[in-house]
Description:
It contains 18 helices and 13 strands. The protein is of the alpha/beta class. The chain has a domain of about 210 residues. The structure holds 2-acetamido-2-deoxy-beta-D-glucopyranose (3 copies). The site of one 2-acetamido-2-deoxy-beta-D-glucopyranose (NAG) has 5 residues, from helix 14.
Amino acid sequence: MEVAAAKAPRQLLARGGLAAAAPCPAVNGGGGVVVFFAALVAGALVAACWMSASARLQVAPITPAATPTIARNAATGPEPAPGPPRFAGGGTSTNQTPSAAAPANFAPPPRPRELPPAPSPAGAAAPAARECPAYFRWIHEDLRPWRDVGVTLDAVERARRYAAKFRVTVVAGRLYVARYGRCFQTRDVFTQWGILQLLRRYPGGVPDLDLMFDCEDRPVVGAADRHHAQPPPLFRYCGSEATLDIPFPDWSFWGWPELNIKPWEALRREIEEGNAMANWTERAPYAYWKGNPNVGAGRRFLLRCNASGKRDWNARIYAQDWGKELQRGFRESDLSKQCTHRYKIYVEGRGWSVSEKYILACDSVALMVRPRFHDFFSRGLAPLRHYWPVRDRGVAMCRSIKFAVDWGNAHPDKAREIGRNASRFVREDLAMDRVYDYMLHLLAEYARLLRYRPAVPRGAAEVTVESIARGRRGLERQFMMETAVADDGAGGEGPCRLPPPFSAQELQALRRERADVVRQVEAWEDH
Ligand SMILES: *[C@@H]1O[C@H](CO)[C@@H](O)[C@H](O)[C@H]1NC(C)=O
Ligand SMILES: *[C@@H]1O[C@H](CO)[C@@H](O)[C@H](O)[C@H]1NC(C)=O
Ligand SMILES: *[C@@H]1O[C@H](CO)[C@@H](O)[C@H](O)[C@H]1NC(C)=O
């Protein structure tokens, strides 16, 4: 039912106006507003979507002090606190299930072919910059609809009709923003902050450009528009196969003050330090998830995989105890101390979830319930290399989870390798330097497609560090200070080199390889 959104651009278009009624149908379950945030205390899933839900609740301007009030209003009342997980002890390597033996001859899936070396500028004295991570190649795919036709002013302006919330214009290295609507919490503020830091980091590096941005969770430019000669380019935080929206790094990379989630670079380092202290072998040998189960079909299915008297699917599922978190003022929701289980489940809520990077950073094996959305980096992840694929419906999902956990406990070396590969991906390919490089290349490639000369649009105002930071206090201010980039550029190391587009054959081969791996796992499960 959620997918319908992507398939009905027209309907969405109409709905786009109803900002408040927007996206999260599940918020009103059970006589109260269930907020789907998910992730604090012990293993968390931060559903990006909960803010959309809370958006209806007249969320006041945020200062850390105000947050508990907001959230209290949003909470249904305390949910039962998770009891202490019952761990059966460390080892579970004895698997009587015949199927568990099947993949013993686990072989890493074929790896995508190495990229051809990109041509280095002839006679360049400086050593060629190192190539960006492979997921940067998706920039070309995301912009492909405009590759031949270019981006016209008319197409950009049409994108506004999809309820774009603001317009970003860069002229001569300065940032101008025209606001068209409200974003939840400080999504827009921290997104614009991030773009501003990019401009400071690479002075003169970001060409003049003009783009529409929406900050809601789900992509909306439907496939139907694919056939429009000039589809509207719309930037947001995630995309999907069925839509044309262009994924861009979300606000949480610069921090999420309302939830006391630190800027990514700092948090990533803390998680890394936490990993060093939580030996994989000593972690609870189960698959852990905590979040709001009321958002999205996948989460409702996941609930049924929780250990019940009858059947233990090796999953330990907890509903977020929102009320309690609030009382604690998020003080104890330390993401860096949540890598306590060998397996962590990732399941989408209403849209993609920002929790993905925190889960991948854990060194645990990410059990990824087949996602329908992607953010800018997730297409760089390969099944069985960075995560274990899990089916997305019904009891099959539970079987997938049980199988994965049994398999991993029986093959701890392989399992740990998958976990380590994911955390290495996060450390190397998703370091903040690379996030900035991604923004730079995406924006530069987009700018190249413009068929008009960007000018500051009517109603836009210049955004500067001073104008954004003015009047901000508490965590908002702190996170900005922590992520402020000196305006003399990065100093030293320039951006990585953008890899070339996929050829049609490469793209097809990549998709086939991944589908084959998933099918292979399913065959093991079915045995
Ligand atoms: C992790 O813990 C196990 C069991 O306690 C121990 O055998 C192993 O050496 C530890 N590994 C590391 C890297 O500390
Ligand atoms: C899952 O099961 C555990 C143990 O029985 C229980 O504490 C927890 O509340 C359950 N989770 C949900 C979401 O019902
Ligand atoms: C983990 O990454 C390394 C280096 O990229 C690779 O050689 C290895 O095959 C990966 N492991 C798995 C299980 O894919």
